[in-house]
Amino acid sequence: MKYSITLVLLVFSMLLANAQSSMQISSAEVRFTFVDDDVTGTLTGFTSESSIDFEQIENSRFSGSVEVETISTGNSFRNWSLRRSKYFDANTYPRIAFESTSVQQEGNSIVVKGILSLKNSSKEISFRFEKKDKQLIGKTTVYSSDFGIHIKSEREKNKVLVVLIFKLK
Question: Is 61 left (phi over 0), alpha (psi -120 to 50) or beta?
């Protein structure tokens, strides 16, 4: 009987440990800064099918998207303009999506490589995440012109810093 109780407790503790090491994203905050004009903004309407295994991080999967129509820069005319066909074309391409292709631990960071699909283009990018309590904070740099969004004529002037703040459950 004593061994049965010990075995049950051992199995239960292993299940609990596994449940705590694998997490999902419960919500996200997506921020961006268009560097050349110092314009900041956010995107909402986030959905995710991600699964994060902190015990074996390479088994993790990041997959999610945001609604283009939710782009907010604090300027309603700019928001309206960005949603139109000249830039993001929210009517034709309503979501911006990301799907990971690899997840690796590099020191204290988690590097997530994957495909970003924005407007009519898909490009490989990578995010560098740091875990802080029940959050993952990821950063990357993209160029809007790489995705057919030419706000400025020179590629370097289309630099956008992206920050993702994932709340984990």
Answer: beta
Under CATH, to which class is 21-168 assigned? mainly beta
The pLDDT of residue 2 is 52
Q: What pLDDT is stored for residue 22 in this prediction?
A: 82
Q: Which tens digit of pLDDT belongs to each residue from 7-18?
A: 443 344 444 444
For residues 108 and 134, the answer to whether their CB atoms sit within 8 Å is no
Please give the model's pTM, rounded to 2 decimal places.
Answer: 0.85
Q: What is the pLDDT of residues 17-49, one digit of tens each?
A: 444 468 999 999 999 999 999 999 999 999 999
Question: Closest Cα partner for 123 from 150, 105, 98?
Answer: 98
12-21 CB contacts, 8 Å cutoff, 24+ apart: 18/55, 21/53, 21/54, 21/55
Euclidean distance between CA atoms 158 and 61, whole angstroms: 29
110, 164, 109, 97: which is closest to 137 by C-alpha? 164
Contact 43, 32 (CB under 8 A): yes
Q: Where are the domains of the chain?
A: 21-168
Report the alpha-carbon angle 110-116-120, nearest 5: 175
